[in-house]
Design goal:
Number of strands: 6
Shape: globular
Largest sheet: 6 strands, antiparallel
Order of helices and strands: HEEEEEHHE
Structural class: alpha+beta
Distance between the termini: 14 Å
Strand content: 15-25%
Number of helices: 3
Helix content: 25-40%
Number of domains: 1
Length: 142
């Protein structure tokens, strides 16, 4: 699914915050680590810290985990990865999925909930594409 507007970095940051806020757990807060952002031709890889809220002393708040999140500036997809692989490997896997998608159809569509490009006429092709994305640990944050 393509969007007509190409995201700016600022728009992408707002989108990440919006998506994370929707997923926020009452006990945790999220913050983007802007100085660690990686720019790629497809968009950006943002890093965010998940911090447990402490009752009492705010000085004890320490990030419990740092996560990477991919924003595709063309499709506006917000994609995360459930594996513990280095970010360079995750980016490489994502780029390979983009190349594969472009090779088989109408541009990028990793969403596991919306239809794949119509050129994937055979169910086995669609299923293989989804299986590959899932196997690589990708999921869309919607």
């Amino acid at each position: 699914m393509k969007s007509e507007k190409i995201l700016t970095k600022e728009d992408a940051e707002k989108l990440v915050v919006e998506k994370l806020d929707k997923r926020a757990i009452a006990e945790n807060i999220f913050s983007i680590l802007k100085d660690q952002t990686i720019e790629k031709p497809f968009g950006w890889v943002f890093f965010y810290a998940e911090t447990a809220k402490n009752i009492g002393d705010d000085t004890k708040k320490q990030p419990t985990d740092i996560h990477a999140i991919i924003i595709n500036k063309y499709s506006h997809q917000v994609v995360a990865n459930s594996t513990s692989q280095p970010v360079e490997r995750i980016i490489s896997l994502y780029e390979k999925l983009l190349i594969r998608s472009k090779a088989i159809g109408e541009g990028w569509c990793l969403s596991l909930t919306i239809p794949l490009p119509p050129i994937l006429k055979h169910k086995s092709d669609r299923e293989k594409f989804k299986e590959k994305a899932i196997k690589d640990g990708f999921y869309e944050i919607s």
